[in-house]
Specification:
The chain contains 23 helices and no strands. The protein is an all-alpha fold and 445 residues long. Helix 4 runs parallel beside helix 6. The chain starts with a helix and ends in a 14-residue tail after the last helix.
Length: 445
Protein backbone atom coordinates (compact mmCIF):
# COMPACT_ATOMS: atom_id res chain seq x y z
CA UNK A 1 0.00 0.00 0.00
CA UNK A 2 2.81 2.38 0.87
CA UNK A 3 4.52 1.64 -2.44
CA UNK A 4 1.28 2.25 -4.33
CA UNK A 5 0.79 5.59 -2.58
CA UNK A 6 4.33 6.67 -3.39
CA UNK A 7 3.95 5.73 -7.07
CA UNK A 8 0.62 7.56 -7.25
CA UNK A 9 2.10 10.60 -5.50
CA UNK A 10 5.00 10.74 -7.95
CA UNK A 11 2.57 10.61 -10.91
CA UNK A 12 0.57 13.52 -9.52
CA UNK A 13 3.80 15.41 -8.71
CA UNK A 14 5.25 15.10 -12.22
CA UNK A 15 1.92 15.98 -13.77
CA UNK A 16 1.87 19.09 -11.61
CA UNK A 17 5.43 19.96 -12.69
CA UNK A 18 4.34 19.82 -16.35
CA UNK A 19 1.33 22.03 -15.67
CA UNK A 20 3.60 24.52 -13.85
CA UNK A 21 5.93 25.06 -16.81
CA UNK A 22 5.58 28.42 -18.56
CA UNK A 23 3.75 28.31 -21.87
CA UNK A 24 0.29 27.84 -23.33
CA UNK A 25 -0.21 24.58 -21.44
CA UNK A 26 0.46 26.20 -18.04
CA UNK A 27 -2.43 25.77 -15.61
CA UNK A 28 -1.57 26.91 -12.11
CA UNK A 29 -4.83 25.83 -10.47
CA UNK A 30 -4.54 22.35 -11.98
CA UNK A 31 -0.86 22.17 -10.95
CA UNK A 32 -1.78 23.01 -7.37
CA UNK A 33 -4.48 20.32 -7.47
CA UNK A 34 -1.96 17.71 -8.64
CA UNK A 35 0.61 18.72 -5.97
CA UNK A 36 -2.12 18.59 -3.32
CA UNK A 37 -3.06 15.06 -4.42
CA UNK A 38 0.57 14.02 -4.21
CA UNK A 39 0.84 15.48 -0.71
CA UNK A 40 -2.38 13.74 0.34
CA UNK A 41 -0.82 10.40 -0.59
CA UNK A 42 2.68 11.17 0.74
CA UNK A 43 3.08 14.12 3.08
CA UNK A 44 6.79 13.87 3.88
CA UNK A 45 8.29 14.99 0.55
CA UNK A 46 9.71 18.56 0.75
CA UNK A 47 9.73 18.95 -3.06
CA UNK A 48 5.95 18.51 -3.20
CA UNK A 49 5.40 21.42 -0.83
CA UNK A 50 8.09 23.53 -2.53
CA UNK A 51 6.49 23.10 -5.97
CA UNK A 52 3.02 23.84 -4.63
CA UNK A 53 4.48 26.94 -2.94
CA UNK A 54 5.92 28.06 -6.27
CA UNK A 55 2.51 27.64 -7.93
CA UNK A 56 0.83 29.70 -5.22
CA UNK A 57 3.56 32.32 -5.63
CA UNK A 58 2.70 32.64 -9.34
CA UNK A 59 -0.94 33.05 -8.38
CA UNK A 60 0.16 35.81 -5.94
CA UNK A 61 -1.31 33.92 -3.01
CA UNK A 62 1.74 34.78 -1.01
CA UNK A 63 0.57 33.71 2.43
CA UNK A 64 -0.24 30.20 1.24
CA UNK A 65 2.98 30.08 -0.77
CA UNK A 66 5.08 31.00 2.28
CA UNK A 67 3.22 28.46 4.40
CA UNK A 68 4.16 25.73 1.90
CA UNK A 69 7.78 26.86 1.78
CA UNK A 70 7.91 26.56 5.56
CA UNK A 71 6.47 23.03 5.40
CA UNK A 72 9.09 22.12 2.82
CA UNK A 73 11.97 23.44 4.93
CA UNK A 74 10.60 21.76 8.01
CA UNK A 75 10.90 18.41 6.25
CA UNK A 76 14.38 19.08 4.88
CA UNK A 77 16.27 22.08 6.15
CA UNK A 78 19.80 23.00 5.12
CA UNK A 79 21.35 26.44 5.18
CA UNK A 80 21.75 26.34 1.41
CA UNK A 81 18.14 25.35 0.83
CA UNK A 82 16.98 27.98 3.32
CA UNK A 83 18.96 30.66 1.50
CA UNK A 84 17.66 29.56 -1.93
CA UNK A 85 14.08 29.63 -0.70
CA UNK A 86 14.61 32.99 0.97
CA UNK A 87 16.11 34.40 -2.23
CA UNK A 88 13.15 33.13 -4.23
CA UNK A 89 10.69 34.88 -1.92
CA UNK A 90 12.88 37.98 -1.83
CA UNK A 91 12.96 38.10 -5.65
CA UNK A 92 9.16 38.04 -5.76
CA UNK A 93 9.15 40.83 -3.16
CA UNK A 94 11.42 42.91 -5.40
CA UNK A 95 9.02 42.36 -8.29
CA UNK A 96 6.15 43.62 -6.16
CA UNK A 97 8.30 46.55 -5.05
CA UNK A 98 8.97 47.56 -8.65
CA UNK A 99 5.21 47.63 -9.22
CA UNK A 100 4.79 49.66 -6.01
CA UNK A 101 2.71 46.91 -4.44
CA UNK A 102 4.15 47.78 -1.07
CA UNK A 103 2.03 45.67 1.33
CA UNK A 104 2.74 42.45 -0.63
CA UNK A 105 6.40 43.41 -0.93
CA UNK A 106 6.72 44.00 2.83
CA UNK A 107 5.06 40.64 3.55
CA UNK A 108 7.39 38.81 1.17
CA UNK A 109 10.56 40.45 2.47
CA UNK A 110 9.53 39.64 6.04
CA UNK A 111 8.85 36.05 5.03
CA UNK A 112 12.24 35.86 3.29
CA UNK A 113 13.90 36.98 6.52
CA UNK A 114 11.92 34.42 8.48
CA UNK A 115 13.02 31.67 6.08
CA UNK A 116 16.68 32.74 6.36
CA UNK A 117 17.50 35.36 9.04
CA UNK A 118 21.04 35.67 7.68
CA UNK A 119 19.71 37.10 4.42
CA UNK A 120 20.30 40.65 5.69
CA UNK A 121 19.70 42.34 2.31
CA UNK A 122 16.02 41.65 2.90
CA UNK A 123 16.13 44.30 5.66
CA UNK A 124 17.12 46.86 3.05
CA UNK A 125 14.51 45.69 0.54
CA UNK A 126 11.75 45.73 3.16
CA UNK A 127 12.87 49.21 4.28
CA UNK A 128 12.48 50.47 0.69
CA UNK A 129 8.90 49.19 0.63
CA UNK A 130 8.23 50.74 4.04
CA UNK A 131 9.60 54.05 2.76
CA UNK A 132 7.12 53.73 -0.11
CA UNK A 133 4.37 53.60 2.52
CA UNK A 134 5.96 56.49 4.47
CA UNK A 135 6.69 54.15 7.38
CA UNK A 136 10.05 55.80 7.96
CA UNK A 137 10.57 54.80 11.59
CA UNK A 138 10.01 51.13 10.74
CA UNK A 139 12.33 51.44 7.76
CA UNK A 140 15.08 52.89 9.98
CA UNK A 141 14.86 49.93 12.37
CA UNK A 142 15.56 47.47 9.56
CA UNK A 143 18.30 49.59 8.02
CA UNK A 144 20.08 49.92 11.36
CA UNK A 145 19.95 46.13 11.81
CA UNK A 146 21.52 45.76 8.38
CA UNK A 147 24.29 48.22 9.25
CA UNK A 148 25.00 46.32 12.47
CA UNK A 149 25.32 42.98 10.68
CA UNK A 150 26.96 43.94 7.40
CA UNK A 151 30.72 43.42 7.59
CA UNK A 152 31.76 45.03 4.29
CA UNK A 153 32.27 48.81 4.66
CA UNK A 154 31.66 49.58 0.97
CA UNK A 155 28.33 47.75 1.08
CA UNK A 156 27.28 50.00 3.96
CA UNK A 157 28.05 53.28 2.20
CA UNK A 158 24.73 53.76 0.39
CA UNK A 159 22.74 52.60 3.40
CA UNK A 160 24.47 55.14 5.66
CA UNK A 161 23.48 57.83 3.17
CA UNK A 162 19.90 56.53 2.98
CA UNK A 163 19.63 56.52 6.77
CA UNK A 164 21.09 60.03 6.86
CA UNK A 165 18.50 61.28 4.36
CA UNK A 166 15.63 59.71 6.29
CA UNK A 167 16.81 61.18 9.58
CA UNK A 168 17.23 64.57 7.97
CA UNK A 169 13.66 64.31 6.69
CA UNK A 170 12.49 63.32 10.19
CA UNK A 171 14.33 66.37 11.59
CA UNK A 172 16.90 64.24 13.40
CA UNK A 173 19.98 66.10 12.15
CA UNK A 174 22.32 64.76 14.80
CA UNK A 175 21.61 61.14 13.87
CA UNK A 176 21.86 62.10 10.20
CA UNK A 177 25.29 63.59 10.88
CA UNK A 178 26.50 60.36 12.48
CA UNK A 179 25.68 58.43 9.32
CA UNK A 180 27.11 61.10 7.02
CA UNK A 181 30.38 60.96 8.93
CA UNK A 182 30.34 57.15 8.72
CA UNK A 183 29.84 57.41 4.96
CA UNK A 184 32.72 59.88 4.63
CA UNK A 185 35.00 57.51 6.53
CA UNK A 186 34.26 54.90 3.88
CA UNK A 187 34.49 57.28 0.92
CA UNK A 188 35.88 60.75 1.79
CA UNK A 189 35.07 62.15 -1.68
CA UNK A 190 31.54 60.81 -2.04
CA UNK A 191 29.54 63.67 -3.58
CA UNK A 192 26.25 62.96 -1.83
CA UNK A 193 27.94 62.54 1.54
CA UNK A 194 29.80 65.83 1.08
CA UNK A 195 26.60 67.60 0.04
CA UNK A 196 24.77 66.33 3.13
CA UNK A 197 27.75 67.25 5.28
CA UNK A 198 27.61 70.87 4.05
CA UNK A 199 23.86 71.04 4.71
CA UNK A 200 24.21 69.66 8.23
CA UNK A 201 27.22 71.87 8.91
CA UNK A 202 25.01 74.87 8.16
CA UNK A 203 22.54 73.69 10.77
CA UNK A 204 25.41 73.28 13.23
CA UNK A 205 26.31 76.93 12.70
CA UNK A 206 22.71 77.91 13.45
CA UNK A 207 22.84 75.93 16.70
CA UNK A 208 26.07 77.70 17.65
CA UNK A 209 24.31 81.05 17.19
CA UNK A 210 21.37 79.80 19.27
CA UNK A 211 23.77 78.75 22.04
CA UNK A 212 25.28 82.24 22.05
CA UNK A 213 21.80 83.77 22.37
CA UNK A 214 21.01 81.49 25.32
CA UNK A 215 24.23 82.54 27.02
CA UNK A 216 23.30 86.20 26.65
CA UNK A 217 20.00 85.35 28.37
CA UNK A 218 21.90 83.54 31.14
CA UNK A 219 20.57 80.11 30.18
CA UNK A 220 23.74 77.99 30.12
CA UNK A 221 21.99 74.60 30.18
CA UNK A 222 20.09 75.38 26.99
CA UNK A 223 23.31 76.67 25.44
CA UNK A 224 25.04 73.40 26.31
CA UNK A 225 22.20 71.43 24.73
CA UNK A 226 22.48 73.43 21.49
CA UNK A 227 26.23 72.92 21.41
CA UNK A 228 25.79 69.19 22.04
CA UNK A 229 23.72 68.89 18.88
CA UNK A 230 26.06 71.17 16.96
CA UNK A 231 29.00 68.94 17.88
CA UNK A 232 27.10 65.85 16.77
CA UNK A 233 26.37 67.53 13.43
CA UNK A 234 29.92 68.77 12.89
CA UNK A 235 32.41 67.19 15.31
CA UNK A 236 35.34 68.76 13.46
CA UNK A 237 34.37 72.36 14.23
CA UNK A 238 36.46 73.08 17.31
CA UNK A 239 34.54 76.30 18.10
CA UNK A 240 31.69 74.24 19.48
CA UNK A 241 33.87 72.23 21.86
CA UNK A 242 35.75 75.31 23.07
CA UNK A 243 32.54 77.21 23.75
CA UNK A 244 30.97 74.27 25.58
CA UNK A 245 34.18 73.74 27.56
CA UNK A 246 34.09 77.37 28.70
CA UNK A 247 30.44 77.03 29.75
CA UNK A 248 31.20 73.85 31.68
CA UNK A 249 34.02 75.67 33.47
CA UNK A 250 31.72 78.55 34.37
CA UNK A 251 29.23 76.01 35.74
CA UNK A 252 31.95 74.38 37.85
CA UNK A 253 31.87 71.15 35.82
CA UNK A 254 35.62 70.93 35.45
CA UNK A 255 35.91 67.32 34.26
CA UNK A 256 33.54 68.00 31.37
CA UNK A 257 35.33 71.26 30.57
CA UNK A 258 38.73 69.56 30.48
CA UNK A 259 37.37 66.74 28.29
CA UNK A 260 36.05 69.20 25.69
CA UNK A 261 39.16 71.37 25.63
CA UNK A 262 41.55 68.43 25.50
CA UNK A 263 39.42 67.08 22.65
CA UNK A 264 40.13 70.28 20.72
CA UNK A 265 43.84 70.04 21.45
CA UNK A 266 43.83 66.47 20.14
CA UNK A 267 41.88 67.45 17.02
CA UNK A 268 44.23 70.34 16.26
CA UNK A 269 47.36 68.44 17.32
CA UNK A 270 48.12 71.07 19.93
CA UNK A 271 47.91 74.08 17.63
CA UNK A 272 44.73 75.66 19.04
CA UNK A 273 46.00 78.53 21.18
CA UNK A 274 42.43 79.31 22.26
CA UNK A 275 41.90 75.77 23.59
CA UNK A 276 45.28 75.78 25.34
CA UNK A 277 44.51 79.11 26.98
CA UNK A 278 41.01 78.06 28.03
CA UNK A 279 42.33 74.77 29.41
CA UNK A 280 44.90 76.69 31.46
CA UNK A 281 42.14 78.98 32.75
CA UNK A 282 40.05 75.93 33.64
CA UNK A 283 42.88 74.30 35.60
CA UNK A 284 43.65 77.63 37.25
CA UNK A 285 40.03 78.07 38.35
CA UNK A 286 39.91 74.53 39.71
CA UNK A 287 43.18 75.14 41.53
CA UNK A 288 41.74 78.27 43.14
CA UNK A 289 38.76 76.28 44.45
CA UNK A 290 41.05 73.58 45.83
CA UNK A 291 43.24 76.27 47.41
CA UNK A 292 40.18 77.87 49.02
CA UNK A 293 39.27 74.46 50.42
CA UNK A 294 42.85 74.19 51.81
CA UNK A 295 43.58 71.21 49.57
CA UNK A 296 47.01 72.63 48.89
CA UNK A 297 48.71 69.51 47.51
CA UNK A 298 45.93 68.90 44.99
CA UNK A 299 45.77 72.59 44.13
CA UNK A 300 49.51 72.65 43.49
CA UNK A 301 49.24 69.73 41.05
CA UNK A 302 46.40 71.44 39.19
CA UNK A 303 48.28 74.76 38.96
CA UNK A 304 51.20 72.87 37.45
CA UNK A 305 48.84 71.53 34.77
CA UNK A 306 47.66 75.07 34.14
CA UNK A 307 51.23 76.29 33.67
CA UNK A 308 51.91 73.39 31.31
CA UNK A 309 49.28 74.81 28.96
CA UNK A 310 50.01 78.50 29.49
CA UNK A 311 53.49 79.51 30.56
CA UNK A 312 52.82 83.24 30.06
CA UNK A 313 50.06 83.84 32.60
CA UNK A 314 51.29 85.72 35.71
CA UNK A 315 48.15 84.87 37.71
CA UNK A 316 48.82 81.13 37.54
CA UNK A 317 52.33 81.58 38.91
CA UNK A 318 50.93 83.81 41.64
CA UNK A 319 48.39 81.14 42.59
CA UNK A 320 51.01 78.39 42.59
CA UNK A 321 53.23 80.63 44.69
CA UNK A 322 50.41 81.03 47.20
CA UNK A 323 50.20 77.24 47.47
CA UNK A 324 53.92 76.97 48.08
CA UNK A 325 53.68 79.71 50.71
CA UNK A 326 50.86 77.92 52.57
CA UNK A 327 52.91 74.73 52.45
CA UNK A 328 55.86 76.64 54.01
CA UNK A 329 57.86 76.30 50.81
CA UNK A 330 58.93 79.94 50.89
CA UNK A 331 61.78 79.60 48.41
CA UNK A 332 59.51 78.03 45.78
CA UNK A 333 56.83 80.63 46.47
CA UNK A 334 59.38 83.38 45.92
CA UNK A 335 60.46 81.83 42.60
CA UNK A 336 56.88 81.82 41.37
CA UNK A 337 56.23 85.42 42.48
CA UNK A 338 59.43 86.63 40.85
CA UNK A 339 58.54 84.85 37.60
CA UNK A 340 55.05 86.37 37.69
CA UNK A 341 56.60 89.82 38.21
CA UNK A 342 58.91 89.24 35.27
CA UNK A 343 55.89 88.45 33.08
CA UNK A 344 54.01 91.56 34.22
CA UNK A 345 55.89 94.15 36.28
CA UNK A 346 52.78 96.32 36.59
CA UNK A 347 50.80 93.60 38.38
CA UNK A 348 50.16 95.00 41.85
CA UNK A 349 49.02 91.63 43.21
CA UNK A 350 52.43 90.08 42.71
CA UNK A 351 54.21 93.20 44.02
CA UNK A 352 52.19 92.94 47.23
CA UNK A 353 53.04 89.26 47.60
CA UNK A 354 56.75 89.84 46.93
CA UNK A 355 56.99 92.70 49.41
CA UNK A 356 55.05 90.78 52.06
CA UNK A 357 57.23 87.72 51.62
CA UNK A 358 60.49 89.67 51.71
CA UNK A 359 59.32 91.56 54.82
CA UNK A 360 58.43 88.29 56.57
CA UNK A 361 61.82 86.82 55.68
CA UNK A 362 63.49 89.98 56.96
CA UNK A 363 61.75 89.63 60.32
CA UNK A 364 62.81 85.99 60.52
CA UNK A 365 66.45 86.91 59.84
CA UNK A 366 66.24 89.77 62.36
CA UNK A 367 64.96 87.43 65.08
CA UNK A 368 67.86 85.10 64.33
CA UNK A 369 70.37 87.93 64.58
CA UNK A 370 71.20 87.75 60.86
CA UNK A 371 71.14 91.52 60.45
CA UNK A 372 72.80 91.86 57.04
CA UNK A 373 70.38 89.35 55.54
CA UNK A 374 67.50 91.04 57.35
CA UNK A 375 68.47 94.47 55.97
CA UNK A 376 68.64 93.04 52.43
CA UNK A 377 65.19 91.44 52.69
CA UNK A 378 63.58 94.65 53.99
CA UNK A 379 65.20 96.54 51.12
CA UNK A 380 63.63 94.07 48.68
CA UNK A 381 60.24 94.54 50.32
CA UNK A 382 60.58 98.33 49.88
CA UNK A 383 61.67 97.86 46.26
CA UNK A 384 58.44 96.10 45.32
CA UNK A 385 56.09 98.21 47.47
CA UNK A 386 57.74 101.52 48.46
CA UNK A 387 54.57 103.09 49.90
CA UNK A 388 54.31 100.85 52.99
CA UNK A 389 55.62 102.69 56.12
CA UNK A 390 56.35 99.69 58.32
CA UNK A 391 58.83 98.25 55.81
CA UNK A 392 60.97 101.36 56.35
CA UNK A 393 60.55 101.05 60.11
CA UNK A 394 61.79 97.45 59.97
CA UNK A 395 64.78 98.39 57.84
CA UNK A 396 65.56 101.44 59.99
CA UNK A 397 65.45 99.31 63.15
CA UNK A 398 67.84 96.84 61.52
CA UNK A 399 70.12 99.69 60.44
CA UNK A 400 70.26 100.96 64.04
CA UNK A 401 71.28 97.50 65.21
CA UNK A 402 74.01 97.56 62.57
CA UNK A 403 75.11 101.01 63.79
CA UNK A 404 74.10 102.64 60.51
CA UNK A 405 72.23 105.55 62.10
CA UNK A 406 72.33 107.71 58.99
CA UNK A 407 70.43 105.07 57.05
CA UNK A 408 68.00 104.70 59.95
CA UNK A 409 67.28 108.43 59.96
CA UNK A 410 66.68 108.39 56.20
CA UNK A 411 64.15 105.54 56.55
CA UNK A 412 62.34 107.12 59.51
CA UNK A 413 62.15 110.40 57.59
CA UNK A 414 60.52 108.46 54.71
CA UNK A 415 58.00 106.97 57.12
CA UNK A 416 56.82 110.37 58.37
CA UNK A 417 56.71 111.65 54.81
CA UNK A 418 54.34 108.83 53.89
CA UNK A 419 52.48 108.90 57.20
CA UNK A 420 52.90 112.21 59.07
CA UNK A 421 51.00 110.82 62.06
CA UNK A 422 53.29 107.85 62.66
CA UNK A 423 54.24 108.35 66.32
CA UNK A 424 56.79 105.52 66.32
CA UNK A 425 58.81 107.10 63.53
CA UNK A 426 58.70 110.57 65.13
CA UNK A 427 59.85 109.11 68.43
CA UNK A 428 62.76 107.33 66.76
CA UNK A 429 63.81 110.47 64.94
CA UNK A 430 63.70 112.42 68.19
CA UNK A 431 65.86 109.82 69.93
CA UNK A 432 68.31 110.08 67.05
CA UNK A 433 68.46 113.86 67.42
CA UNK A 434 66.54 114.57 64.22
CA UNK A 435 63.37 116.62 64.06
CA UNK A 436 62.29 115.15 60.76
CA UNK A 437 61.40 116.92 57.51
CA UNK A 438 59.76 120.25 58.46
CA UNK A 439 57.03 120.89 61.00
CA UNK A 440 55.66 117.73 62.48
CA UNK A 441 52.12 119.09 62.56
CA UNK A 442 52.22 121.01 59.33
CA UNK A 443 49.81 118.57 57.69
CA UNK A 444 47.13 119.37 60.29
CA UNK A 445 46.96 123.06 59.51
Amino acid sequence: MDRINKEGARKHYYKGVELLKPGPEQDLEAAISEFSKAIFLVDDQPDYFAKRAHAYMLLKDYKTAVSNFRRSLKLLHTSELGRRTSNLVDAEGLARLRHQEFPDAIFLFSAALDLDPSNIYCYVHRALAQIGQSKLDEALKGLNIYLEREQKPKAKLLIHLLVARINKQLKNPTTAAVHVNSALKIDPVNEEALRLYVQLKGRAGELFAEATAYLLRNQPLKAVDCLKHAIELDPKDTRFLVRRGVIFRQMGQYNEAVADLEGVIELTKGTSTDALRQLAITYNQLGIELYSAREYTQALAVFQLAIKHDKESPSIYINRGDCHREMQEVGLALEDYLHAHKLNEADNEVRIRLSTLYDARGLTYFDRGMLDESYREFSSAIHYLPQVPHYYIHRATTAMELGNFESAVTDFREVVRIDPHNEQAWAKLSSLGDNGPGDRFASDS
